[in-house]
Each structure stands twice: as structure tokens, then as C-alpha cells.
Predict the structure.
Amino acid sequence: MPIEFVFVIGIAILLFLCLKVKANAFISLLATALVMGFLSGMSGEETVSAITGGFAGTVESIGIVIIFGIMLGNYLDAAKATNRMALDTVRLVGQKRAGLAMAITGYIISIPVFADAGFVILTPLVKAIHKKTKIPLALLAVSLSAGLLATHVYVPPTPGPLAAAGLLGIDIGQAILYGAFAAVFMTAFGWIFAELYFRNKPESYYTFRDDAKEEESSMNIDDDTDLPKSLASLLPLLVPILLIVSNTTCSMLLPEGSPVLLVTSFIGDSNIAMAIGAVMAIILLGKRMGGKKILSVMDATLKDAGPIVFTTAAGGALGEVLSVSGAGDSLASMVISTGLPFILIPFVIAGLLKIVQGSGTVAVTTAATLCAPIAASLGLNPILIFLASGAGARACCHVNDSYFWVYTNCMGFDMKTGLKTLSISNVAMALGGLCATFICSLWL
């Protein structure tokens, strides 16, 4: 069977299992890998070998990093360090520019913390600012979402981009640098859209759920007595990122065998750096949490990380099958013949997956998996797939995405207003990510 048909059939099977059968992504990816291996002419032994090899290689490259990344985020959440970062940002930018402050806050918070959890954590702050400044609630909520959702799909150690980087063989430091660059564009596009579109909308534009109650925020944005110190809140997040980036930078600039490189290659290894971040969070914030909370967070982290690690590894298994079967070379030839700009392919795939099945993490990892063999055959930098997939994974957040319901429930909006505010703003965010991808393509 022609490999192009195998590829199309594989995508159809993946979507059918995820959407119709409601199978989880782990089972869907492995089943798709098995079917595509057989249809492409690989023997049973070759197919199984590719699946197990891809699975093991992916776990080896990013498994520990995901676990420690989630652990770090959970500690920052438990100690209210995320609230401290948010208040500091508001004070730095000013309450009159609270929309920008919310966008910056979301950008920072979502690096270690899941976007859904980040929005819940910061909801009292959004309502407190709205009450004091009279800035439209949707403007603040969408601006915050722009930052949260941008780094959620772009900046490791968030699991989605971390998994995509592992699947594409991208250095984690490079993924952080380029992802942070693209996330700035995505955040800026979302924030600017919110400022222009929601600033002067009449109150009648927004409708609320019948059961929604007018809640008074208990947070006082002028009182920070119950929060940790700024430096203690920021260092556990900042230090591992700097260590990873320093390793990438030194590897590019210093000769092999350099004493400095020997040090940075160890402490800047993504596994060690994220472990250092988690330990720093315990040391600097442990007194606030207490011994029992520290241990409970460790236990919760393993439960949270397991499904993510396994799903990502299943994506690696599918990617290995695509590579071994020769799908990359065949699909690359097809892409060249169509004349379609390559960066649009992962963008479209991720966008369709996001719209259809809802998960940005699944969208970005699946698009990266499917497009990696094509890029290798075309000789293109995998960073471009990474960025384009992230942009597509932000295409539209609607009723099949858990974040949509977190957003509407926390703000008290009904579904219609959620679609009119968050969903349409995601289009601007996706275009921002695509713009950043195009800019990077000029020199990559």
C-alpha cells in the first residue's frame, strides 16, 4: 500500500480512537503505530521493535524531566509562590495596565504550573483587580489566558513542549529559548486583541450562568503578608532554566573537554537542573508547606506525571514507526510536489487535532511526531516544527477543552460568552505563534 495512504489511514484511526471510541491517547497512539507498521509492509517483529525502541528512547530523554517539572510546579502552587509572582508583576507594571500585567503573569506562571491550575490560582487576583480598576473582566481574563496558554504549549518544563522537544530531538535549552521567543508573540497577540476588542464592549455583550453568583474576591492586591518572599518564589523556577540555557550556550561556544563545559554539562543537564529546582523549592518554601505537605506533593506528582510520560512515550513509538517505515521520505516528496510551505503542515495538523479533540498537549506532541520524519527528509530544522506545532495547538479553545470550562466557571460566564471571549481570542494567539515561526524560519 502507498505510504501516503498509510499515513492518512493512520491519522483517521488515531482520530477515530480518540474521538469516537473515547480511548485515551496512550492506547490510541500505540494502536495507530501498530496498524501503520503492518500497513506499510513492516514485519511483526520490525513493528514491535520500532514501537518498543521509540517508547524507551522517549522515556529516557524526557521522562525524569517531566516528573521533576511537575513536582516543581506543584510546590510553587502549594507554597503560594505563584500568587507572589502575580502580585509582583501587577505592582511592577501598574494597576492601570493590569491587562498587560495579567498577560505577563500568565506567561511566567504557566512555565512550571499547568494552565488550568494557573487560572484557578489567579482567579481571585483577576476579580480583585476588576473590582478596584473597573477594567472589563473579560479583558483581564483573556489577557491572563494569553500568557498561560502561550507558555503552556511552548516553554519547557511544561509537559507538552517538553515532550515535543524530546520527540523531535531538540536540545531542551534551545526549546526554552525559541519557545520563550514564540510565546512572547503569542501572548502579545492575545493581549493586544483583548485590549482592542473588549475594552469598550457594552455590559450586554457578556452573559453569565444562571447559577453564577457575584463573588467578592477575598484577595487584597495591596496586602501580601500571607505570601512568601519574591526571591524565594522566583529562584526555584529561574535557576533550572538558567542552568539548562547555560549548558546549551556553553556547548555552542566552548571546545569539547573544557573544564567549564564539564561542569555546565552536568548541572545544566535538564534532568539534574529540574531536580535542583525542585530541591530549591523544598529548601526555600518548605517551612510554609510543612513536612506532610512536601511528602503529599511528591506522591501527587507521580500520579500526575505517569499519564503524561506514558502518552509522550507512545508518541515516540509512533514516530519511530513512521521513521523506520520510510514514511518520512515519501511524505517529504509529496510536500515538495504540492508547493505548500512546510511550516503550515504541522500548524494545520496541530490545529485540527486541537479543534477536534481539545488537548493542546496531545495536539502539539502528535503534530511533532507526524512531521518529524518529513522534516528530516527535507533537511529542515526541527525547531520550526516545534514552533509551528505549538502555534497550531492554540488554534481554538472551546467546549471540548478543560481549560474552556475552568475559564467560564471561574469567571461566571455562560458558554456563549466563553466562545465570544476566550475562543475567538485563541485565533489571534495562534497567528502570533505562526508569525514567530515565520520570523525564526528566516535564519534557521
Summary: The mean pLDDT is 84. The two ends are 35 Å apart (CA to CA). The CA atoms of residues 131 and 217 lie 8 Å apart. The chain has 19 helices and no strands.
